[in-house]
Amino acid sequence: MGYKLPEKFVTTVVGSYPYFPEALKAFRLRKQGKKNFEYERLVREAIKKTIKDYISAGVDLISDGEQRREDMAVFFAEELRGFEISDYVRIFDNVYYRKPVIVDKIEWNHEIIVKDWKYAAKLSQGRPVKVTLTGPYTMYSWSFDKYYGNMRKAVFDLAEALSHEIRILIKGGAEYIQIDEPALSTNPKKEDVILAREALEIMLGRLHNVKRILHICYGKIERLFPEILDFPIDQLDLELKNSKYILLELLKEFSFDKELGFGVIDVHNEKVESIEEILEDIRLGLEIVPPEKIFVKPDCGLKRLKREIALAKLKNMVKAAVEAREKLA
User: Fold this and answer.
1) Domain boundaries, the chain
2) Three-state SS for 249?
């Protein structure tokens, strides 16, 4: 079954979706070391329900909802060779986190998310399914390093390990590869920005006939300019709604001309944005790039919202994009 993406104002998601009860049960089994038939059944059922919601909302470019991943860094650390997972450590207030610990050379030794992508693609009714992977800079930044003692070497090994997964996904038909680097904007020293670019070159630099996407949210995103303009990507996916679109002036200043993942849904606010509000926000994007280069989407992953709120936000987002094609394009 084919599905033709609209030529303008494509709607998409960043990656995660509110966890279904099946996903929460699967997380418990995973923590018990029971990655068995029942675990796989639960994950697949959660992905199936996620895809059903995306399709009912009318989203064009979808994801698997990351229903297998309780945490974006811990999940990949559990699947890559060279990591162990710590006991819970306190981050701030009463928030605790099981932090990845690098104890050996980081290597890829088995498929990680390939089966979830394939299953989502099978259910998508022809809609393309975006691959989302946690980037090497974020993986390292959110881990304890007890092996390398050298950030550059560790990040490059992470990039090389994730490249194996990307190549298999592309061979299987994936056309949209998104690297998530939320840590990059939290401590954006220039040498770190350059390191992140070099890591992306390892993962994405030689890829052809695929859309290469970088997602960054919150933090000091402005400090990533102008270096980020030279990253080997086709689309920069940004959080914009929550920060009241303050980055748009910066994008204008640097004559930004890549595709723009344009955040119009605040994932930290339960208020459902109206169609009119989203439409006016989309209009702001036209000051930067033409409608063919605007991908309308939430600021970030939706997993922290209640499902009914996330779905209502997506439905209004899609309706606003449809109106934008009629009124603004």
Assistant:
1) 10-17+59-327
2) helix
pTM of the predicted model, to two decimals?
A: 0.96
CATH number for region 10-17+59-327: 3.20.20.210
> 327: closest CA among 271, 276, 288, 253?
276
The string of pLDDT tens digits covering residues 256-304 is: 999 999 999 999 999 999 999 999 999 999 999 999 999 999 999 999 9
CA pair distance 39, 257, nearest whole angstrom:
44
Nearest residue to 76 (alpha-carbon basis) of 162, 169, 14, 137: 162
Segments of the chain assigned E as strands: 10-11, 81-92, 95-107, 131-134, 144-145, 176-180, 211-216, 235-238, 259-265, 294-298
H or E element: which one contains 53? helix 37-57
CB 29, CB 39: distance < 8 Å: yes
> 275: Cβ–Cβ under 8 A, 6 or more apart, which residues?
316, 319, 320, 323
Residue 91: the pLDDT is: 63
Q: What is the maximal distance between C-alpha atoms in the chain?
A: 56
CA–CA gap between residue 75 and residue 35 (Å, rounded): 13
pLDDT score of 93:
65
Of 88, 20, 26, nearest to 51 by C-alpha is 20
Please give the distance of CA 36 from its chain centroid, rounded to a whole number.
27
Backbone angles phi, psi at 82, to 5 degrees: 110, -5
For residue 320, the 8-state DSSP code is H
**pLDDT for 41-64, tens place per residue?**
999 999 999 999 999 999 999 999
Q: What is the pLDDT of residue 256?
A: 96
